[in-house]
Amino acid sequence: MQGLIHIYTGTGKGKTTAAAGLCIRFAGSGGTVLFTQFLKNDNSSELAVLEQIANIIVLPSNAYFGFTSSMTPEIKENARNHYNNYFTKILGKVYSGGYGLLVLDEIITADNADLIEHGRLMDFLKNKPYNLEVVLTGRSPSQDLQDMADYISDIVKVKHPFDKGISARMGIEK
């Protein structure tokens, strides 16, 4: 089976949740999953469940630098170095691990913030293993990412409690 490229994007809640759901579906069919996250602090609630499923491997980034909009130039440079090294580690696992599904959660946001090398991401997607299904999440994917994708799901916020000052709640938004 040829692996395709999925993008979950938009202003709405649920991009990571959709990716996690696909991981469960894929693992349930006997496939092996590598789940990775950029720009998150490695304690998202969905990770606790994904880590319990035998054929889902969660590869934590082991670093959190805060929101991209709050990063100083020094923090941004540290984040750029970290996430490019993390991407190298991900690629090493992909090319040696026999995975059928790779989730790159929030890589689009990292790409937009220039925290990973865009050309390297595009090269990987153009030359990925034939059978590898790849999911990218985050807001505002570049046009070349959109052109590369086989699926694009735009999750649109119509209404959200954050607009009323309600913070992210454990088990719902985090």
Unreliable segments (pLDDT under 50, ≥5 consecutive)? none
Multimeric status of the protein: single chain
Tell me, rounded to a whole number, the average pLDDT: 95
State the helicity in percent bands. 25-40%
Provide the β-strand percentage band.
15-25%
Offer a quick outline of the entry:
This protein is an alpha/beta fold and 174 residues long. The chain has 6 helices and 6 strands; from the N terminus they run E-H-E-H-E-H-E-H-H-E-H-E.
What is the element layout, followed by pairings?
Elements: E1 5-9, H1 15-28, E2 33-37, H2 45-50, E3 56-59, H3 73-97, E4 101-105, H4 107-112, H5 118-127, E5 133-137, H6 143-148, E6 151-154
Parallel strand pairs: 1-5, 1-6, 2-3, 2-4, 4-5
Please tell me about this protein's structure.
The protein is an alpha/beta fold and 174 residues long. The chain is built from 6 helices and 6 strands. A 6-stranded parallel sheet has the order 3-2-4-5-1-6, sandwiched between helices. Strand 2 (33-37), helix 2 (45-50) and strand 3 (56-59) form a beta-alpha-beta unit. It starts with a strand and ends in a 20-residue tail after the last strand.
Short descriptors:
174 residues; alpha/beta; 6-stranded parallel β-sheet
